[in-house]
Amino acid sequence: SSLTSSLGSELIVVKDGSVSAATWIVNTVDTPPIDLDVLCSCDEYTPSTVLKNAELQGEKSDRSTRHVEVSLPEKLTYRAGDHLAVLPVNNAKDVEALADRCDLNLDTVIVINSSREDLKTDLPLNRPLTIRTLLTQFLDLNKTPSRNAMAFLAS
Questions:
Q1: What is the pTM of this model?
Q2: pLDDT at 8 over 50
Q3: DSSP structure string for 57-80
């Protein structure tokens, strides 16, 4: 099965519970994927180590607020108010289960583009990568889907 037949040629981004106007255009390509180390070593992504990860809410709270400290490379600075993207590393079994459910070949090489130039994203745009790399390194498969995302997936 092709990526297009499983996902369609366009993916709608669902953020903060509402479908945004952003459209991701996903194409399969016949070029080799970029090595993950190269993909994550560009200016947009800097691997780091979590030094501290502590829950700040009490045991009886149904919320979670975390204090996270990370090591920063020498060239990088972080000040209060700056944004930090945390890219997940998903469990291989979860990735394989999702691919199986969606009838996706994890070794298919894709390129993701956006129809909006002003869109800020942590997705690796305009770079060949496998579906496995996308699902393992760049998408949070454990996040609870919003109602709109569930409605979109169910349609």
A1: 0.63
A2: no
A3: S-TT-S---EEEEE---TT----T
